[in-house]
Amino acid sequence: MKKGKVSVIGAGYVGSTTAYTLMLGGVVSEIVLIDINKQKAEGDIIDMNHGIPFVHPVKLVAGDYKDIEGSQIVIITAGAAQKPGETRPDLLIRNVVIFRNIIDEIVKYCDKDTILLVVTNPVDVLTYLTYKLSGFPVSKVIGSGTVLDTARLKYEIANHTKVDARNVHAYILGEHGDSSVVAWSHVNIAGMNAEKFCQNCNVCGNWSESSLYQNVKNSAYDIIIKKGATYYAIALAIEKIIESMIRDENSIITVSSFLDGQYGITDVCISVPAIVNASGIERVIELPLDEDEIIDLRKSGDIIKKMISGINL
Q1: How confident is the model at residue 306 (pLDDT cuts 50, 70, 90)?
Q2: Sequence spans of domains, the chain
Q3: Residue 268: in which H helix or E strand, if any?
Q4: 256 strand-pairing partners
Q5: Which CATH number fits the domain 2-143, given the four candidates 3.40.50.300, 3.40.50.170, 3.40.50.720, 3.20.20.60?
Q6: Which end of the chain lies in a sparser environment, N or C, as judged by fewer CB atoms within 10 Å?
């Protein structure tokens, strides 16, 4: 395995933006971009290579599956695009077929030390499918999960309270989708419960958890209606996950992880806080959630399981 070598499968909006964001980030040594439309991947790589004089040295390659050999991390963004009005579960049938072919190719060229990061939606189901089909250890198969949802929540809270989003601490758990769960019991600013902070600041007006959550839940649909796809923020979320692994940061991130009893949930991939480092998922963290939050998280897991049950593994 070559440390710092990252392969991106899929050169659509998310894949190409991810490759570009990784190039700018300066933490990877080599990026391989693969797409069924090889000309598109080649065009992206040529374009990015012309910017090499302005960034840290990095090798950029438009390749075939054989070129992923030796990758420390393989990112899967390939799949059918989500259409306006289409939910993430609606994508499942189309993307399962695509994923079977992708995983077959990955296991030909990568050993079980490689970390597989799934981004394609519905991400929780496809992360589970990747784990089952690849045979890789649970620590090595990760979904981007609710990392972006959590960032959206932090933005909404920061915008409401007029503080730096980096000083907002919050988690969205569960499905990367409509059954996601905000762990309101753990949202805080400056060590205070966010609602109390808002009440004391005399700046931000009425605090409404429902309104904040609806803004987060509807944001992707709104962006898709306006411009067809989301790709900038998710690329930054992916870059954060990759950086955490390459730098062995032990970062706590809400990635989609395989659960085996945590939170009373088994045999499903779902987003919860996890320590992410060079080994992949070091361990899942069990937050002391409120009873209602636990109930909603388990319901979210059941929704993902129901989607999984429709797949012939």
Answers
A1: very high
A2: 2-143, 147-309
A3: strand 266-271
A4: 143, 271
A5: 3.40.50.720
A6: C
Task: Determine the residue type at 248.
Answer: D
In the numeric block, the tokens 């933005």 are attached to: 155
What is 147-309's CATH topology? L-2-Hydroxyisocaproate Dehydrogenase; Chain A, domain 2 (3.90.110)
Contacts of residue 90, Cβ cutoff 8 Å, sequence gap at least 6 = 82
Candidate list 56, 169, 176, 186, residue with the active-site label: 176
Query: For the segment 164-181, what is each residue's pLDDT rounded down to a tens digit?
Result: 999 999 999 999 989 999
Q: pLDDT of 84-108, one tens digit each?
A: 777 766 778 788 889 999 999 999 9
Q: What is the pLDDT of residues 98-146, one digit of tens each?
A: 999 999 999 999 999 999 999 999 999 999 999 999 999 999 999 999 9
Q: What gap in Å lies between CA 163 and CA 155, rounded to an integer?
A: 10
| Residue 143 host element (H or E) | strand 141-143
Residues 6+ apart with CB under 8 A from 34: 7, 8, 9, 10, 11, 41, 62, 63, 64, 65, 67, 68
Residues 6+ apart with CB under 8 A from 1: 70, 71, 72, 111, 113, 114
- Residue 275 bridge partners (DSSP): 252, 283
> Phi, psi at residue 107, to the nearest 5°?
-70, -15
Terminal CA-CA length for the chain: 29
- CA dist 112 and 108 (Å) reads 11
